[in-house]
Amino acid sequence: MIMKLNPDLFLFRRTRELERKIDRFYDNLSESAIVFRLAVRAYLKQGWTEEFQERLERVSQLESANDNLRREIESELYEHTLIPDSRGDVLGLIENSDQVISEFESTLWAFANERPEIPDAFRSGFRKLTNMVVKAADELGLGARAFFRSPQDVPAYNHKVMLYEKEADVISTTLKRAIFASEDLALCGKLHLKEFVEYIDSIADTAEDVADRLAIYAIKRLV
Amino acid sequence: MDPMLLIFLSSGMFLGWALGANDAANVFGTAVGTRMVRWRTAAIICSVFVILGAVISGAGASGTLGKLGAISAMPGAFMTALAAGLAVYFMTRSGLPVSTSQAIVGAIIGWNLFAGQPTDLGVFSKIVGTWVICPLLSAVIAVILYKAMRTTGERLRLHLLTVDALTRTALIVAGAFGAYSLGANNIANVVGVFIPARPFPDIEVGGFVIDSAQQLFFLGGVAIAVGVFTYSRGVMMTVGGTLGRLSAPKALVAVVAQAIVLFLFASKGLESWLMAQGLPTIPLVPVSSSQAVVGAIVGISLLQGLAGIRWGVLGRIVIGWVATPVVAGIICFLGLFFLQNVFGLAVT
Asked: Does B159 touch chain A (CB under 8 A)?
């Protein structure tokens, strides 16, 4: 009789469960990036709508789910003294990645609360900036997943994070210049829009900061 | 039982205790030091497998020591083991890394010199040769294992946590193998000198005859186990610091390489298999588990360039290498003189 061994039945059940939690954490990060993009698009099209609100609520759910996952991962790593060599790095990576999803949420809340008026002329710039920021966050998620399974692949993902972050900086600078060059907006309107450009752009900055740390963590695993 | 027998055996038990206290750290130190394995788990596995290794496979390396110097009188054997134990103690106190294998060989030569017995130079050079080969072989095995493990790891793309869980399990299995090999190879150091004197009558249990040597191996194994339980904890916790912190996978490679080397120099089964294939055999000689571990760590460090090697520590190891047998030989010679002339005991 051929018996199929189920790895979950054996020693590694706890390990597999924890791996699933880490995977779910990064699934939530990439989902929140997609939903964030859809929410900003919806806002740019029609301003605050039911659809935007639903997307915002979804990002909020994902953010709190990730907070819980982060706490569970942290306590399990410490309680069972797992990965003693890399525990600090893994916790640092997860805490910093959590920062990215928090910024997605807080930016959408700012849209919901402040409801900025975005003139047609700047909508394409906002769309491009959002796309670039989301790409940076996506690549960060892929890089973080690679850290756990193939740290040698991390630099390739990090390189893309850097590129998208730089591109986001270029777009945000161009957008801010265009905003302040506009003759149709009052200064307070310009300042308000500038703030939103910075909200969105800062997500790519955070992704880059996390990628910088990730590069060190990956090197430590490879040495 | 003759109470004098217990007194004479006490020096061997002391040596066994010292071996358990120090060398168990070579097997489980890195695993316990990095908190990958609990100390209690390590101590239990280590004790059981040291005793099994000693009783099942201890005869091979003991035979070679017997050829170096067949000490037939118990007082002589007592002094030889005591001299080795004291050499280990003094060298440890001086902060020099020490090998019980080298101490006992030095002490036996001390006995040979005192008794006017010629030292078999063929056996002696075979033993000294293995001292050089042991760390080198360990380094080569460690490099091969480490490269193989890395390549496999990269191909399989295992999750960091799976690697952690596998490493923990492997450290326990490798530790058990290491402890077995330590018992098989190093029991000769602990009770080898008492074997020619045949201090115990044979015991028959359920059709099996347990001879004097096997009883000695068991006693020696128990002494090592006592050393593990009473003193090895501190040594295990600090062993990592001596040579620099090792990552868990590197620690695993070091333990496996050391276990393989000790096993190669102890296995009669392998020797007869090699003979049957017409291949050159590996001498069955007690080698130093510390030097095997150091060899393995240096091998892995060399993969990352010379910068990873702590030359100061290596230098001290080389000094210990030369000093240990000399100190043990001198102590043994002086001790035998004392036993014979002050207590009037026949030591040869």
From this structure: yes
The answer to whether residue A222 neighbours chain B at the CB level (below 8 Å) is no
Instruction: Give the pLDDT of residue B189.
Output: 85
Q: Is residue A137 part of a domain?
A: yes
Closest CA to A94 of A113, A67, A118: A67
Distance separating alpha carbons of residues B283 and B281, to the nearest angstrom: 6
Residues of B in contact with A221 (CB under 8 A): 160
The answer to whether residue A9 sits within a structural domain is no
Residue A3 DSSP code: P
Are B162 and A150 inside 8 Å of each other by CB? no
Q: What is the mean pLDDT of chain A?
A: 93
Q: What is the CATH number of the domain that holds A164?
A: 1.20.58.220
At residue B287 the predicted structure's pLDDT band, cuts being 50, 70 and 90, is confident
Lowest mean pLDDT among A15-29, A141-155, B151-165: B151-165
Judge contact between B109 and B325, C-beta under 8 A: yes
User: Quick check: A221 contacting B, CB < 8 Å?
Assistant: yes
Number of domains making up chain A = 1
Structural domain containing residue A114: 16-222
Contact with chain A for residue B237, Cβ under 8 A: no
State how far the Cα of B252 lies from the Cα of B260, in Å rounded to an integer: 12
Is there a contact between B248 and A84 if contact means CB atoms under 8 Å apart? Answer: yes
Give whole-number Cα distances, B179 to A213, B19, B176, B189, in Å: 40, 12, 5, 15
Q: What is the distance in angstroms between the Cα of B159 and the nearest Cα belonging to chain A?
A: 4
Interchain CB distance below 8 Å, A83 and B154: no
Is the Cβ of B162 closer than 8 Å to some Cβ of chain A?
A: yes
Three-state SS at B210: strand
- Nearest-by-Cβ selection for A81 from B35, B160, B165: B35
Nearest to A15 among B36, B154, B161 (CB): B161
- B304-321 core/surface letters (b: 16 or more CB in 10 A; e: else): eeeeebeeeeeebbeebb
ipTM over 0.85: no
Report if residue A1 sits inside a domain.
no
- Residue to mutate among B38, B156, B164, B250, with most A CBs inside 10 A, is B164
Is residue A5 assigned to a domain? Answer: no
Considering only A55-59, B54-58, B62-66, which range has the smallest mean pLDDT? B62-66
Tokens of A55: 């997307």
Where is pLDDT greater, at B259 or B92?
B259
Tokens linked to A54: 């639903």
Q: What is the model's pLDDT at position B242?
A: 56
